């Protein structure tokens, strides 16, 4: 699905963005909560207001997981196995939320990266985030 060049580009982008994990992740989550209010259901026990510790912490966890998966995309199933189980069996997150979050992450990356988020980077990231969401949803089948 992803060429060698696209894989290298995705890895490079996430390595560059990892220091901003809290900011990028929390912005993407907040964007999802505002755009798709039903997604807040799974976070009712947390303070998910802008800038809250819970939002920053969970946003960082998500970005770090995405960045970890980008290190070796061919091993995405193995890398995400613990998260698959957590989200499917313990948290019971509706898998459609993974796609919604992927879209919100793309918008956040475009806003954050500006001109560096070229059409090639956008297309590659869209493919990667779609694969990431699909792998997370795999345990639901």
From TrEMBL:
Pfam families: Globin. The keyword Ribonucleoprotein does not apply. Keywords: Heme, Iron, Metal-binding, Oxygen transport, Transport. It comes from the Eukaryota. InterPro entries: Globin, Globin-like_sf, Globin/Proto, Hemoglobin_a-typ, Hemoglobin_oxygen_transport. One of its GO terms (molecular function) is metal ion binding. SUPFAM superfamilies: Globin-like. Gene3D superfamilies: Globins. One of its GO terms (cellular component) is blood microparticle. Residues 1-141 form the Globin domain. PANTHER family: HEMOGLOBIN FAMILY MEMBER, HEMOGLOBIN SUBUNIT ALPHA-D. Belongs to the globin family. This is Hemoglobin subunit alpha-D-like. It comes from Salarias fasciatus. The gene is hbae4.
